[in-house]
Amino acid sequence: MALLLALVVGLGPAASAQGEPPPAAPPPPGPAAPRQPLRAPLAPPELQAGSAALLDVASGRLLYAKAGEVPGYPASITKILTALVAVHKLDLETPVEVSRYAASAEGSSMYLRAGMRLPLRDLLYGLLLESGNDAARAVAEAVAGSEANFVLLMNAEARRLGALHTRFTNASGLPDARHVTTAVDMARIARAALLDPTVRQIVSTPVWRVRWPDGSVHFLVNHNRMLGRPLDGVKTGYTRAAGNTFVGSATRDGWQLVAVVLRDNFYGQYEDTLRLLEWGWRSFRRVPVPGLEGPIRVPTGDGRTAVLTTAGPGPFLLPVRPGELGRLRVQRLLPAVWPPRLAAGERVGLAVVRIDGQPVAEVPLVTALALEPPPGRR
Known about the structure:
globular; Beta-lactamase; alpha+beta
């Protein structure tokens, strides 16, 4: 990382009060050092950020936090939740008419004009690539009729995702003393966004082409200056009050991690993110969880046996540090009384994975095979 620091000296950007710094590309990282076998826990990296978090996307395990529950201003990383709420509520081809309120938004913009009509899809790209505050307002009004109503949906979704210290007052992240989150909360929100195929596709896109209603073509450029080298998402943010905020994800050997930094500086947001990701990959290894491997056979108490599995496309893997595997326990939360019939793939319970008694991951359990009624009750 010393190489990275040396290369970026003298390239400092100017920044507006309520927008993001002008694009400036940090240099690509050097080749990754070969990973060493885990022998002893590695010390967490030194960070410039005021608070930070690192989370495993697949399992949801929090791998690291620095002042992770300390409230801070998110700036434009707010828009990750804006997009997530929108894709759950509206079809991507929904036409959206831009209001005067939306077009008049301060700060970073995709330069919408009042009266324009664009599909929601293009507005979401403008929201997450160009960080358009105008797009945030237009999306909010399209979904909920007003930005105030949309904020209620955002805060409800944050609570559902376990982001209990997050309270948003607008859809864009413009400065407001009451508009706060934490690094850990944003990691949980970002995980949900990365697990959504639509949002994941948008944040991994370098450039998006939009045709304006007058026929002109505009190109939306992703503000994530390390996209593809090695990051695969998600969002930058900046205000004077917040400093630089950043959520960055990357995947190595099929293993995706997401890092969050708050109260950082322009170069620090990228340097800290790379340090956190590298530390995560080097410090943990993913293992199958004993008791959750393969089919899980559970007596139902009425003479039947339910065959369950963990939800997801593949086996559930948990990142662990040296010595943790032997301290791992699984608690299965299942129905006291089983229904007479269940189709394959139905969610029936939850597995809580604990290390030293502390929950580190929750895994939905679904039926691997259909459960038929007991004999005599068909």
